[in-house]
Design a protein that fits this description.
- The structure holds two protein chains of two kinds.
- Chain A is α+β, with helices and mostly antiparallel strands.
- Chain A folds into two domains: 6-225, no CATH class; 360-545, no CATH class.
- Helix content of chain A is 30%, strand content 23%.
- In chain A, strand 9 (256-265) and strand 10 (268-272) form a beta hairpin.
- In chain A, helix 1 (6-30) packs antiparallel against helix 6.
- Chain B is of the alpha+beta class.
- Among the domains of chain B are: 51-254, no CATH class; 482-595, Dna Ligase, domain 1.
- Chain B is built from 17 helices and 35 strands.
- In chain B, helix 12 packs across helix 13 (447-458).
C-alpha cells in the first residue's frame, strides 16, 4: 500500500494536469489550421495503461473530446494485442469515428508511455483537421449518406514503430487531404505535443516513483467517483422522462426524437435512450462512444467541481438501443455530430431541471450554426468562408443566460468581422444581438444573434444548423428561446430553406445576402417572478420585445 | 534638484524608492495604502522620506484604473458606432466565462442604451462606402450627453484601414461635447479586430473621467507642497508617459505597477550578470510571474482583465495566479488541501493580523513556522498574533486532515509552493525555455520566503534576491525609460507592400510619437526608434513579430528581400519549419520610440564598506524545518559584500524577509543582491 497523503496528492494532481495543459498549449501554438490554432478544437489527456480510462484531462481542451478520448485509447488497446502489442516509441493514428467517437475530421494520435520496461500509461492528442478528402472541402457535407462522402477514414495504424516513422502512412494521409501542407504541419504539431508529454511524464516518474504516481492517479479517479456518488445520493430517487427533437437529418424533413429516461437509484444514475429515433440517412448519427461522451459533458456542466477523469462515469449507467441514431454503425454518416450531441445535452439539462430545481438551467441555443460561403474571385481562384455562429445560454440560478455564447461542447471563439471581410469578398450588414430571442423567465435566457452577410460577386451558400423547428427549452416555467431563422435573399425576396436549418448550394447573386437569426437560451422560472428592475432594464435596453 | 522618487501604489502597500542621482544615495519606504483615497497614502508616504519640494521627478505606478474596471466603478460613457454593429461590445468574441458550468453573464462597460448607431461604412480596403453626416453625429452626441455620459468614444468598422469617418465624427462631436473626454478608436488602437478595438476604446473612455481627475488631484497636492518637477506615470509596456498623456490614454496604465517591477527586475538582473531570469512577485493576493530573456522582458499585445474586459495595448507579459501571502488554505469536498485562489486580502487579512480574519493563509503558515518574525512584520504593521494563526490552521487544516499543527502549516506552504512552481514552469518550460538556464528573481515582501523552495522544485539555477525586494516596482518607476508605441494595420501581401509606402507609414508613426517625448520636459540620455512587422504565411492567423534592423533611429534602408529574410529567420526561430513557397503577409506595423533615462548605478545601493557578518547578526530564533531548528537571523541590509550565509537562516529587512533553507546558502554580491543556491 502506497502511503499517499492528501498534500502529496494535491501536488501531484497539479503536476499531472499541467502536463496535459502543456500538451494542449504545444498543439495550439504549432498547429497550422485555425480550427486548432484559434478555435482550440483539440484535446489531450493521460489514460490508464490497461483500460484506457481517463486519468487526467487538460483544462483547455475541447469539452466533447474529454469524454470520447478514453474510447479512442481503448480502440488501440483492443486492436493491438499479442504479437502486435504496443512497444516503447510507438505512435498510433486514426480518425475512425465508429471506434473513437465524434467525426472523421478529428485525428487522434495515441502514444504509450513505458517506464522500466512496462507500459505505464497512454497519452493522446486529438484535433480537428481541416480537410481529409471526401465530397466537400472542409468535410462538412450536410447531404452525405455514408462516410465515404464525408472524408477518408484512417483505421488505427502505427505511425511510429518503436521510434521509427512509417513514412508510408504519412504519405497516405497527406495524399487524402486537399491541404497537405496544413495536414503535415498539424501532424507534426500533434507529435510535438506527445513528445513533450512523454518527456514530462518520465521526469515526473523519475521524481516521484512510478508506483506513487500510479497510486495518485488511481486515487484521483476514486475521489471523483466518490464525489459524483455523493452528488447522486443527494438527489431524489425516481425516473424522469424527457424528449426533444432534431429538425431533420438534412435529407428528409422529418423530426428525429431524442428520448432519455433519467433514473436515480441511491448512488446510481442511469440514462436510457430508448425511444430515440432510428439511424438516419443524413449525417446526424453519432456513435455509441460519442453518446457516452455527451452524457459526460452534460454531467461535467451540471457538476463542474468534480475533477475530469473516468471516476465521474463510475456510478453512471447508459443504455443506448441498438440501431438508433445514437448508435451509429459504419458506414452511417456522422459529420453533423455536433447537432445531435447538443440535443442529448439539452435533454439531460431539461431532466435535471426537474430533478434538481435549485440548480435548474435553461437550454442553450443548441446548434453550432455552420455556414459556408464560396465563390470565385476576379482572378478565378476559389474562396471558401467557413464559420460557426453563436447564440444564447439558458437562464440559470446565478442570473440571466449569457448572450452570444459558444456551444456547451466547445470553447471556440468567432473570428472578427474585420478579419472575415479582409479575407473574403463579403460584407456584413448586421452583427447584432437578436432582440427578444431569450426565453422569458425570472432569469431570462441569453440573446441569440443576427448576422447578415452580403456577397460581393456570385456565390453559393451551405448551412448546417438546427433548432429551426423546435425551440431551446425553458425550465421551471421559463419560456422557450426563439428558434433559428435562416434566410437567403433571392430575386423574389427572402427565402427560408425547405429543411428549415439546412441547405446545400444556394445560389446568391452579387449583393444578395444571407441572414441567420440564431436561437436564444431558454428562460428559468416564471416570467411573473422576474424582478421589476430587471424588466425595466430589459425594456430600456431593448432586449425584450 | 537631483532627487528622483518612484511611488508604486498597490492594493495593500504604497512603496517608495528615493534616489539621489548626485550622490547615488537611495532610500526606501513602505506604508499602508489608503484604498479610495490613494492620494493621501501617496503624500503620507513621501512625508516619511522627503519633502515634495526637494524632488526633481516623481514617477508613479498605479492601479487606480484597473481597480475601477474590476470593481465596475468606471465613468458613464457613450459609444457612437457603425449602423448594424452597436452590439459588438456585448457580443465579445462569442466566448463564455468558464469551460464547465453554463453560468456567468456579462455586462459591457457601456450599456446598450448608450451605444448609438450612425449611418457610415468603411470597407476592408479602406474605401469609404458611406461618409458620415456631421448632423447625425452631433445629434447622437447630444443624446448621449442627455443620458449623463461624461466621456465619448467613437468606433467605426475598419477605421484602422482609413480613419477618415472617425476623424469627421470626432470633429462633429467636439462641437457639442463639453469636455476633453472624446476619443476615436483609430487614435487609440488603429489595429484590425473590431471587438478588441472597441473594448480597448470603451475601457479607455470609462477611465478618462476617473484617472485624469485622480492624477490632477495628486499633481495639485504635490504642487501645493512645493513640488516643481516632472510627474510621470508608468505604462503597461514598462515605459513611462507624462501625466497629461496618461489622462488621455488611461487604459495604458492597466498593468502600471507590475510592469514597473519587471523593468526593475530586468535591470537588476542584467547588472548582476543574470540576463535570463524569471521574476515572481509575491503579493497579498497574487503571484505575478514574467520571463526576461537576454535582459528583455517578454511582452504581449493583449490582456484580459476579467471576462470580456479585453485591453489590447502592448504590455509586459505578466502571468498571474491566485497565490499570495493572503491566499486562504482550506480542505475541499474531496478531502484535498487547497490554497487560494480565494484571498483574505488586506482586510481582514490573514488570521495573524488580528483584524477578524478567520481563515488560515500562507502568511499564517509562515508565522507559525517561525519564518516570519511575528514581533517585527514588514510594512510598519503592529506585531502579528501567532496564536490566532495557529488556531486558524488547527481548525481549518490540521483537524480536517488529521495532521499536527506544524505539519499542517508545512502542508499549506507545500501546496502554495507547488502552485507557484506551476506558474514558473508555465512561463518557462511551456514556452520552450529550460529552467536550468534561468535564475529566479523573487520580489514583493514575501518572495524571498519562497525562493529557496521554488528554485529546488522547478530546477532553476539559483535565486537572485534584489537588495530591496519589497519596493522593486517603486525602483522600476525610477529606472523605466519613456516609451511610446503605435500600431497600424496594413493587412496585405508583402509583395504588394511598396517599401516607400511602408517608410512613409513608419515616419508618420514616429512623427506622432516623438512630440510625446518632447512635451514631457525630460532630458534623455538617448532616443531610439524601433519598427517591427506582425507577419505570417498566407492562410495562417497567428503572426510572429519581426523586428527590422534599421539602426538606432529607425531610418535604415530595407526592401522586400530584407523583410522576407527577417521573417524567415524569426519564423524558423519560433517554429522550426519554414515554408519556402508560401507567400508572406504583413498584418501590422508596430513602431516604438524610447527615450532612455539616465541609468542608476546599482553599485551605489551596495552595503557600505566596513560592515561585518558578526555585526549584522541578531539573536537566533527557532524556525521549523521538519522540526524546530535553531536558525541564525541577520539584518540583511547590514551584511557585507561577499558574505556567505548558510541555511538554516533568516535574513530580515524592513520591506522583505528571505529564508535560507538547510542545504542552501546565500551570498551577497557587489550590488547587495543575494544569490541563493544549493550548497553542494
Amino acid at each position: 500500500m502506497i502511503d499517499l497523503d492528501p498534500v502529496t496528492l494535491a501536488v501531484l494532481k497539479g503536476r499531472l494536469e499541467q502536463i496535459a495543459d502543456e500538451m494542449d498549449a504545444t498543439l495550439f501554438r504549432r498547429a497550422f489550421n485555425p480550427t486548432i490554432a484559434e478555435a482550440h478544437d483539440a484535446c489531450h489527456g493521460i489514460y490508464h495503461a490497461d483500460t484506457g480510462a481517463t486519468l487526467i484531462q487538460g483544462k483547455s481542451g475541447l469539452p466533447i473530446f474529454v469524454g470520447v478520448m478514453a474510447h479512442a485509447v481503448r480502440a488501440v488497446i483492443e486492436k493491438f494485442t499479442a504479437d502486435r502489442a504496443p512497444a516503447d516509441g510507438d505512435v498510433f493514428i486514426f480518425n475512425d469515428p465508429y471506434l473513437g467517437g465524434t467525426h472523421l475530421s478529428d485525428m487522434r494520435l495515441i502514444r504509450p508511455v513505458f517506464s522500466a520496461g512496462r507500459l505505464f500509461c497512454w497519452l493522446a492528442s486529438v484535433g480537428h483537421w481541416n480537410d481529409l478528402g471526401g465530397a466537400v472541402p472542409g468535410n462538412y457535407n450536410p447531404a452525405a449518406t455514408d462516410y465515404f462522402q464525408e472524408a477518408v477514414l484512417i483505421p488505427p495504424v502505427r505511425l511510429y514503430r518503436a521510434g521509427v516513422l512509417e513514412q508510408d502512412i504519412v504519405d497516405i494521409i497527406l495524399a487524402a487531404s486537399r491541404l497537405p501542407d496544413t495536414a503535415f504541419g498539424d501532424l507534426n504539431a500533434h507529435l510535438s505535443a506527445l513528445d513533450l508529454g512523454v518527456a514530462r511524464m518520465l521526469d515526473l516518474v523519475a521524481e516521484t516513483g512510478g508506483d506513487m504516481l500510479a497510486a495518485a492517479m488511481q486515487r484521483l479517479t476514486d475521489i471523483s467517483a466518490r464525489q459524483i456518488r455523493a452528488e447522486i445520493a443527494g438527489l431524489p430517487d425516481g425516473t424522469w422522462h424527457e424528449e426533444d427533437f432534431l429538425d431533420n437529418d438534412g435529407r428528409t424533413d422529418t423530426p428525429l426524437r431524442i428520448a432519455c429516461a433519467v433514473t436515480i437509484e441511491g448512488e446510481t444514475l442511469s440514462f436510457d435512450f430508448t425511444g430515440s429515433a432510428g439511424a438516419c440517412a443524413g449525417p446526424v448519427n453519432i456513435s455509441r462512444a460519442t453518446t457516452e461522451a455527451s452524457v459526460y459533458v452534460a454531467l461535467k456542466h451540471l457538476f463542474p467541481e468534480i475533477a475530469a477523469n473516468s471516476g465521474v462515469m463510475v456510478p453512471i449507467r447508459i443504455h443506448i438501443p441498438e440501431g438508433c441514431l445514437l448508435d451509429a454503425k459504419r458506414p452511417a454518416p456522422t459529420g453533423g455530430y455536433t447537432e445531435t450531441i447538443l440535443r442529448v445535452i439539452d435533454v439531460i439539462f431539461s431532466a435535471f431541471a426537474r430533478i434538481r430545481p435549485d440548480a435548474a438551467t435553461g437550454n442553450a441555443y443548441g446548434t453550432i450554426n455552420a455556414l459556408s460561403l464560396t465563390g470565385r474571385r476576379a482572378n478565378g481562384s476559389q474562396w471558401v468562408m467557413f464559420s460557426f455562429f453563436g447564440g444564447g445560454h439558458g437562464g440559470n440560478p446565478e442570473g440571466d443566460g449569457l448572450s452570444h455564447g459558444n456551444p456547451p461542447i466547445a470553447t471556440a471563439i468567432i473570428p472578427p468581422v474585420e478579419i472575415m471581410e479582409q479575407a473574403y469578398p463579403i460584407r456584413f450588414t448586421q452583427w447584432a444581438l437578436r432582440d427578444g430571442s431569450g426565453g422569458d423567465g425570472a432569469q431570462r435566457g441569453g440573446l441569440g444573434a443576427i448576422y447578415e452577410i452580403a456577397v460581393n460577386g456570385d456565390a453559393e451558400a451551405f448551412v448546417f444548423a438546427e433548432r429551426a423547428r423546435f425551440s431551446p427549452r425553458g425550465v421551471l416555467g421559463g419560456g422557450d428561446g426563439a428558434r433559428n431563422v435562416i434566410a437567403f435573399e433571392q430575386e423574389d425576396g427572402w427565402q427560408t430553406p425547405a429543411l428549415g436549418s439546412k441547405a446545400v448550394g444556394v445560389k446568391l447573386a452579387s449583393g444578395q445576402r444571407v441572414r441567420i437569426e440564431t436561437p436564444g437560451g431558454g428562460g428559468r422560472g416564471l416570467p411573473a417572478d422576474r424582478a421589476p428592475d430587471d424588466l425595466k432594464r430589459d425594456a430600456a435596453l431593448g432586449l425584450t420585445p | 534638484m537631483s532627487l528622483m522618487l518612484g511611488v508604486d501604489v498597490g492594493g495593500t502597500y504604497t512603496d517608495l524608492f528615493l534616489f539621489d542621482t548626485a550622490t547615488g544615495e537611495a532610500r526606501v519606504a513602505k506604508v499602508a495604502s489608503t484604498r479610495g483615497r490613494e492620494a493621501d497614502g501617496f503624500l503620507a508616504g513621501i512625508a516619511t522620506i522627503t519633502k515634495p519640494a526637494a524632488l526633481s521627478t516623481i514617477v508613479h505606478g498605479t492601479t487606480v484604473g484597473t481597480n475601477a474596471l474590476l470593481e465596475g466603478k468606471g465613468a458613464v460613457a457613450g459609444l457612437i458606432t457603425t449602423a448594424g454593429f452597436r452590439d459588438v461590445l456585448a457580443m465579445r468574441r462569442r466566448d463564455r466565462r468558464q469551460t464547465w458550468g453554463l453560468t456567468g453573464n456579462f455586462f459591457p462597460v457601456i450599456p446598450r442604451d448608450r451605444r448609438i448607431e450612425v449611418a457610415e461604412r468603411t470597407l476592408a480596403d479602406g474605401s469609404i462606402l458611406q461618409a458620415v453626416d456631421p448632423e447625425e453625429i452631433a445629434a447622437a452626441a447630444r443624446a448621449l450627453l442627455a443620458q449623463g455620459a461624461t466621456a465619448l468614444c467613437i468606433v467605426f468598422l475598419h477605421s484602422y484601414a482609413n480613419p477618415a469617418n472617425e476623424q469627421a465624427a470626432l470633429a462633429a462631436s467636439r462641437a457639442v461635447w463639453p469636455n476633453e473626454h472624446v476619443t476615436i478608436s483609430s487614435d487609440i488602437l488603429p489595429e484590425i479586430r473590431e471587438f478588441e478595438r472597441t473594448s480597448t476604446a470603451a475601457l479607455n473612455a470609462v477611465l478618462q473621467p476617473v484617472v485624469g481627475p485622480y492624477l490632477n488631484r495628486l499633481d495639485t497636492a504635490l504642487r501645493q507642497e512645493g513640488f516643481g518637477g516632472g510627474f510621470l506615470i508608468v505604462q503597461s509596456n514598462g515605459g513611462v508617459m507624462d501625466a497629461a498623456t496618461a489622462a488621455r490614454l488611461p487604459i495604458r496604465t492597466a498593468l502600471s505597477g507590475p510592469a514597473a517591477g519587471v523593468i526593475a527586475a530586468a535591470y537588476i538582473a542584467v547588472t548582476a550578470g543574470y540576463p535570463d531570469v524569471i521574476t515572481g512577485d509575491v503579493g497579498g493576493t497574487s503571484f505575478d510571474v514574467s520571463l526576461i530573456k537576454s535582459g528583455a522582458p517578454a511582452t504581449s499585445a493583449q490582456s484580459t482583465l476579467d471576462f470580456g474586459l479585453v485591453v489590447r495595448t502592448p504590455m509586459i507579459e505578466i502571468t498571474t495566479i491566485g497565490a499570495g501571502g493572503g491566499s486562504i488554505a482550506r480542505v475541499d469536498a474531496a478531502g484535498l488541501l487547497q490554497v487560494g485562489p480565494q484571498s483574505a486580502g488586506s482586510i481582514p487579512g490573514p488570521a495573524c493580523y488580528g483584524a477578524g480574519g478567520e481563515f488560515p493563509t500562507v502568511t499564517d503558515a509562515n508565522v507559525v513556522l517561525g519564518r516570519i518574525d511575528a514581533s517585527r512584520p514588514i510594512g510598519n504593521r503592529p506585531a502579528l498574533d501567532t496564536e490566532a494563526a495557529a488556531h486558524a490552521i488547527e481548525t481549518h487544516v490540521a483537524r480536517p486532515l488529521d495532521l499536527g499543527l506544524m505539519q499542517a502549516a508545512e502542508a499549506i506552504l507545500r501546496v502554495a509552493n507547488a502552485h507557484m512552481a506551476g506558474a514558473l514552469r508555465l512561463v518557462s518550460i511551456e514556452r520552450g525555455h529550460d529552467p536550468k538556464l534561468f535564475a529566479f528573481m523573487p520580489f514583493g515582501g514575501g518572495g524571498g520566503l519562497h525562493a529557496g523552495a521554488l528554485v529546488r522544485d522547478v530546477g532553476l539555477a539559483c535565486a537572485l534576491v534584489p537588495r530591496y525586494p519589497g519596493v522593486t516596482s517603486a525602483l522600476g518607476c525610477v529606472i523605466a525609460d519613456m516609451r511610446h508605441d503605435r500600431v497600424r494595420t496594413l493587412a496585405r501581401p508583402l509583395l504588394d507592400l511598396d517599401p516607400t509606402t511602408l517608410r512613409t507609414e513608419m515616419d508618420a508613426a514616429i512623427a506622432l510619437l516623438a512630440p510625446l517625448l518632447d512635451q514631457s520636459g525630460l532630458t534623455f540620455a538617448d532616443v531610439r526608434v524601433e519598427h517591427a512587422l506582425d507577419m505570417h504565411y498566407q492562410g495562417q492567423t497567428h503572426t510572429v513579430s519581426v523586428t527590422l534592423d534599421l539602426g538606432a533611429d529607425g531610418s535604415g534602408a530595407f526592401d522586400h528581400a530584407t523583410i522576407q529574410a527577417a521573417f524567415v529567420a524569426t519564423y524558423a526561430g519560433a517554429y522550426g519549419r519554414v515554408l519556402p513557397h508560401v507567400p508572406v503577409r504583413v498584418m501590422n506595423l508596430r513602431s516604438t520610440i524610447i527615450g532612455a533615462r539616465p541609468r542608476i548605478d546599482l553599485a551605489s545601493l551596495a552595503p557600505a564598506a566596513g560592515t561585518t557578518i558578526e555585526a549584522a547578526r541578531r539573536a537566533d530564533r527557532r524556525v521549523w524545518f521538519g522540526g524546530w531548528t535553531d536558525s541564525a537571523i541577520y539584518d540583511r541590509l547590514a551584511l557585507p559584500v561577499g558574505a556567505v550565509i548558510h541555511g538554516p537562516a533568516v535574513l530580515e529587512q524592513p520591506d522583505a524577509t528571505t529564508l535560507v533553507e538547510p542545504g542552501q546558502h546565500a551570498r551577497v554580491d557587489r550590488f547587495g543582491n543575494l544569490i541563493l543556491e544549493a550548497t553542494r
